[in-house]
Amino acid sequence: MSHMRIELSVVMPCYNEAEGLAQAIRRVHAVCKGLFLTHEILIIDDGSTDGSWAIVEDAAQSIPEVRGLRFSRNFGHEAASSAGLRHARGIQVLILDADLQDPPELLAELRAKMAEGYDVVYGVRRSRAGESWLKLVSAKLFYRVFNLLTDNPIPEDTGDFRLMTRRAVDAFVAMPESVVFLRGMISWIGFPQVGIYYDRKPRETGRSKYNFRKLLGLCIEAITGFSVRPLRIAFVMSMALFLGALGLTAVILIGWLSGRGSSDIALVMMVISFIGGVQTLVMGVIGEYLGKLFVESKGRPLYLIRDTIDKAALDAESR
């Protein structure tokens, strides 16, 4: 099955989504059939432990368009989405989370917008029902901090939900990074890109796998993976503190030479503590970048595949 024969690939990463996965597959399949598209539904099981893979196996028996990749363990959502893009065969590729908070029924609107000449059409969340205030605030803060600290901003209030042309997918796949931030990398490749607004639905089943710790980790990975601006800020802060320390030293020395002495011990201690704190921050920023270099230098694969399902390809080979 060449990708030139498949009009659409739907990439669906999942992790412990057994409760609603079968429904999600049926719903996506119905949307694609309703648009009369030759398609494939590529499920990437990111090391689920709840029986999600068994549901993919069952679905493939009745829906030949279903394909599956099963990771050897949990490698993370970004790795799963990347694997889906690397294995998708379609002329167009839709990235869609298995929880279906992003409705597949928007596919017709996405394709209509792409027909105007865009290579990437992404969803912009006008509202986000069913999410906690902490997640809403942290998400807004993430986009603003990321765009402030990077040279390649990403559209605010977006996720991975997007439709891509084969040209855009091939450009993404050509990137050799072992640490992936999908939204940033797709923004970086350029090509015409546009967003459409929609209302994000609450989860019908299961729970979100993203907590504050994971969101914070994603933010750090994203910023350090796409910009050296934090290093420049650290350098400027270090220079400012160095000059400030020289000035304070001069003030103390002048006071001592003039016989006034220095009774501002508390001020001196405060300045020393502040300088020590900033130095620790600067070392932490540098450490993050060194850590990234260490990870990249090892050259480990982004993920490992344990099992695959491709019933349509097997049927074609047996003919």
Automatic annotation (TrEMBL):
Transmembrane spans: 233-259, 265-290
GO CC entries: plasma membrane
InterPro entries: Glyco_trans_2-like, Glycosyltransferase_2, Nucleotide-diphossugar_trans
Pfam families on file: Glycos_transf_2
Protein name: Glycosyltransferase family 2 protein
Topology of the protein relative to the lipid bilayer: Multi-pass membrane protein
Residue ranges of domain Glycosyltransferase 2-like in the record: 9-170
Keyword Flavoprotein: no
Record key words, sorted: Glycosyltransferase, Membrane, Transferase, Transmembrane, Transmembrane helix
Annotated compartments: Membrane
Molecular-function GO terms, alphabetical: glycosyltransferase activity
